[in-house]
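Notes to self after the Tuesday call (sharing in case useful).
The group wants a holo model before anyone commits to mutagenesis around the pocket. I volunteered. Ligand is iron/sulfur cluster. Logging inputs and output together so the record is complete.
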Amino acid sequence: MYEFAVTPAVTQMRRPGVTIDSVVPGSIADEIGLESGDRITKVNGRTVRDYLDFRFQTSGEVEMIFLVKKSDGETWEVDLERDEGEDLGIEFEQIIPRQCANECIFCFCKGNPDDARPSLFVRDEDIRLSFLYGNYTTLSSVTADEMNRIIEQRLSPQYVSVHATDLKTRAYLLGVEEEKADISDKLERLLENDIEIHAQVVLCPEINDGKVLEKTLRDLAAHYPKVVSTAVVPVALTRYNKDERLTKVTPEFCRKTIEKIGELQEEFRKTLGTTFAFLGDEIYVKAGAEIPTRDHYGEYPQIEDGVGMIRTFEREFGEFLEEISSGDEKPTGEKKDLRTHDLALKPVSDEDVPVVQSLNGTVFTGEMFAPYLRKQVERLNALVGSELSVVAVPNTYFGGDVSVAGLLSGQDFLAVRDKVEGDFAVIPPAVIKSDEPILIDGMGFDRLKAEFPVPVYASDLMELVRAHIGS
Ligand code: SF4
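Result:
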């Protein structure tokens, strides 16, 4: 999920135009004198509200007129020409998210410790972020203008939190009036206009499970292939969620859900040719059940929602081991597309892949993923003679059901630093904020490193091994 910088969201007034963050030296933008801090307010006479408008209005254009508000207050009208497809060389500010007007009973904001990063308290509900990053919206707060924009600019697919097609249940979960919760007209309009939808159900025992869930999945599947897929992910309660309406997800509940939804999945595969309704990895882990096969997930349409990540990781790690054993490992710097955001295996940046002297170290990860990672690391050790060990880190910061790697805090890592074996420690890159070297509890990565007995790297394990082999 896209996590934005909170400062502009709470401090900037909405101003017309889109601000340039940086300009590539020698690019067209540089040649015509555009600079960081300038705001492009119009392209060819049409108003620009944000980066997406800019992209939409410049797409396919080779001759353009920009109206630019310079950072010194001057207004410029700039004519420019480019070759077809030539990049203008402009990086823009982050999109400032629109916020939701719901009061979901399971809202993640209510499960945060008070000192969590401010960005974790921002309730975004933004069709632009949905299109760009796969963030879910409920569509309830989406305005008529935004609906028009989705259709006009083809902001497809959209990721929609449906939760339940039974209106009473949906309204209850969202904490709003039924009239507001009802998105049937909006959904219909999107589908009529060929906007693809990926739906989500946050599964809350005793609220939207059982018959309500079955109805929801059948109602959504009736719109396949325009509703492409549905993710069913369990509600995650931290120790700060005190709402008595919520019931904990138990292993028994997960087992029953797998059994019940398994029958539906089978039916969908026969009638639609796809599993269509995908259960989040956590449901299988908690139930102690086998993770489904690769075929089950098809194109992994909901991987960004934690659906199919373990299977993806196992496949990629298996391929990686095959590369190594065939002596065909990818050289340092040549990366594969590792879509593993929760498993947190991407390096913070290319330069951050460390070259370690030996493969004798400790890999920290969340409790949920640890057994799967350990199994693969044991295979790696057997293959290359490395001495890597995997340590599952309990999440005491959020507590409750939270066991994913990406939500581990600095305090959590410090609590297990005495479990380090070997010469270094590796933590999941996703625990570091993308635009700032801090962890979820605000602890600086430098401080964490300073308090460890060995060097700590926020790095992808496969890349680290590659870098070592290639060194
Ligand atoms: S839609 Fe619900 S869960 Fe999402 S931010 Fe708003 S209140 Fe929270």
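Two things stood out.
Residues 312-470 form one domain.
The longest strand covers residues 227-234.
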